[in-house]
UniProtKB/TrEMBL annotation:
One of its GO terms (cellular component) is mitochondrion. Pathway: Lipid metabolism; fatty acid biosynthesis. The lineage of its organism: Eukaryota, Metazoa, Spiralia, Gnathifera, Rotifera. Its EC number is 2.3.1.39. Belongs to the type II malonyltransferase family. SUPFAM superfamilies: FabD/lysophospholipase-like, Probable ACP-binding domain of malonyl-CoA ACP transacylase. This is [acyl-carrier-protein] S-malonyltransferase. It comes from Adineta ricciae.
Length: 421
């Protein structure tokens, strides 16, 4: 049984899960590879009237003229260096260890959501389950404020802030595990893989016995504060883009960086893919000026639709470097153990190894690198055509991960259930 460490009378979460899974050895070591960044040389472009001396550019703004010229130049360069915006699977191929001969339909996968799923009133549906009140009491002591009151009473403007949203999602997600355990204990006992989106990855590691509930909360508190501080340092944001085969997303980002460098006078302009959601959807993050360039010219690059996200930071990009340095110092002080079940890494899209130093390094890198959720889904649910899928449970606020599961693997989604908070 999975119990959280609340008082001297209760065993720690790590101890309980270790007892539960002491006979399992389900971790597969990932093959880590690093690819050196490709260098690029950008020839200078000067915008003057001679460049637009034809009817095609007569009614265009300077920015759109720049975008179209950049697209032409970058397309010419790409003929010698092939660009594929959607090719990500090959980067993470690995030789899987032999699978145990078990019936997948008797096993479960548990998913934990990330920031953006919070809502006013979260926690009401789980507060009366065993240990949950004590979990919020422990959170009160560690965080220094009444988290349950913040979840129930808000205001929503506070709950939406990174400082409050991440701890709230963490605690309520683990509270949902208590609810699931009370309603169907076998689901928790038979869980073989856990995965979490962004901050949810820490939740997954705590569930897997990698660290205690208290240490996980301290880590998330430091993480949220560091990310909030980094967001305040630069005018940045995030944007969802919907793409197709005709989309030239890499070229769009290259052009946006070039525009920001030449005309916005940004020394090191940043815009990159922060989240791989599914094949036709990515989340971009970076300087606001770069996002605005994409918003004004998305049709030029074949982007179908865009949507700004209500966040004030460029999470999972190099603009979070200062937060990464702060998180490394906190991670050094956290006592961790190898996970007792498979836990997916956002950074690699593959399973975490049992090496603690590698896990800590991955958690710090997660702040500045893309969340490879699409790749993680494909890895977790990869199987032969007639092999059954495990039962999937999303524990925590919102149903975003279920939505993404349906878009990435509709057959696996047929075995999906949500444990509400």
């Amino acid at each position: 049984m999975v119990f959280l460490k609340i008082s001297s009378r209760c065993l720690s979460l790590s101890q309980q899960i270790r007892c539960l899974h002491r006979s399992t050895s389900l971790l597969a070591r990932s093959v880590r590879r690093t690819t050196p960044p490709q260098s690029r040389q950008t020839p200078p472009i000067k915008l003057d009237q001679r460049m637009f001396a034809n009817d095609e550019y007569d009614d265009m703004s300077t920015q759109e003229q720049f975008a179209r010229l950049e697209l032409r130049r970058l397309e010419q360069e790409s003929r010698t260096s092939v660009v594929d915006d959607n090719a990500t699977e090959d980067e993470f191929d690995e030789q899987d260890s032999p699978r145990p001969s078990i019936d997948p339909s008797t096993k479960s996968i548990i998913l934990f959501p990330g920031q953006g799923t919070q809502f006013l009133g979260m926690g009401q549906k789980v507060i009366d389950y065993p240990n949950v009140k004590e979990m919020f009491n422990v959170a009160h002591r560690i965080l220094g404020y009444d988290l349950y009151s913040k979840c129930i009473n808000g205001p929503i403007e506070d709950l939406n802030q990174t400082l409050y949203a991440q701890p709230a999602i963490y605690v309520t997600s683990l509270a949902a595990v208590q609810k699931l355990k009370a309603e169907d204990q076998k689901v928790v006992e038979n869980c073989v893989v856990a995965a979490g989106f962004s901050v949810g990855e820490i939740t997954a590691l705590v569930f897997a016995g990698c660290m205690t509930y208290e240490d996980g909360l301290r880590l998330i508190k430091a993480r949220a504060e560091a990310m909030q501080s980094a967001s305040n340092e630069v005018n940045s944001g995030m944007m969802t883009v919907f793409i197709g085969r005709e989309t030239k997303l890499s070229l769009a980002m290259e052009a946006a960086r070039e525009w920001c460098s030449k005309y916005m006078k940004i020394d090191v302009p940043c815009i990159s893919i922060a989240n791989h959601m599914y094949a036709e959807c990515k989340v971009l993050a970076g300087h606001k000026e770069a996002l605005q360039f994409i918003a004004h010219n998305y049709k030029v690059f074949g982007i179908r639709r865009i949507k700004y996200l209500p966040v004030s930071g460029a999470f999972h990009t190099p603009l979070m470097s200062s937060a990464k340095l702060k998180l490394i110092k906190v991670l050094d002080k956290i006592d961790m153990q190898p996970p007792l079940i498979q836990v997916m890494s956002n950074v690699t899209g593959k399973r975490h190894t049992s090496d603690i130093a590698t896990i800590k390094r991955s958690l710090s890198q997660q702040l500045t690198k893309s969340v490879l959720w699409e790749q993680s889904i494909h890895k977790m649910y990869q199987r032969s055509q007639h092999e059954p899928f495990p039962n999937t449970y999303e524990c925590g606020p919102g149903r975003q991960l279920g939505y993404l599961l349906r878009l990435n693997n509709n057959k696996a989604y047929q075995q999906y259930k949500h444990i509400d908070v």
